[in-house]
Amino acid sequence: MNILFVCLGNICRSPTAEGVMRQRLEQAGLAAQVALDSAGTAAWHQGKPVDPRTRLAAQRRGYDLSLLRGRQVVVEDFHRFELILAMDANNLRDLQAMCPAHAPAEVDLYLRRYGLQPHEVPDPYYGGEEGFEQVLDLLEEAADRLLADIRGRL
Ligand code: 4NP
């Protein structure tokens, strides 16, 4: 199974989603069966490391995001990934606009898909430190639900 997490810049929310989920899969012994990646709808941070504030907040909870690098979503992603999970409604809209008509990917809003409130992961980029903690809180909750979904599919 292949899952792609998508936000705007690919330096805060979607790398966090990827790192949290990777740890959950490793703990569940499922890392070999599910490939994860993340990408941004914008190209601004292509090739760049994860935002230092995001990296630090993640590190404090035991997630290492130091090896991840930013990249932009490409049309081939809709053929490579079965599940593409957007962090907010703008990301979802942008993904839907570029998704080829007969691509197999299922594109959805991550938190809403798993019955969580709020439905969107708020963009922490221009805010304070608490925003990065909230991103982690939401994405840890979502990862547990995604793991249950994956177990049901494998
Ligand atoms: P992300 O956060 O979409 O969670 O990676 C952002 C990163 C960068 C910018 C905006 C949001 N930016 O404007 O550069």
Automatic annotation (TrEMBL):
Gene3D superfamilies: 3.40.50.2300. Pfam families: LMWPc. It comes from the Bacteria. The gene is ptpA. Residues 1-149 form the Phosphotyrosine protein phosphatase I domain. SUPFAM superfamilies: Phosphotyrosine protein phosphatases I. This is Phosphotyrosine protein phosphatase. Belongs to the low molecular weight phosphotyrosine protein phosphatase family. The keyword Hydrolase applies. Keywords: Hydrolase. InterPro entries: LMW-PTP (IPR052995), Ptyr_pPase (IPR023485), Ptyr_pPase_sf (IPR036196), Tyr_phospatase_low_mol_wt (IPR017867).
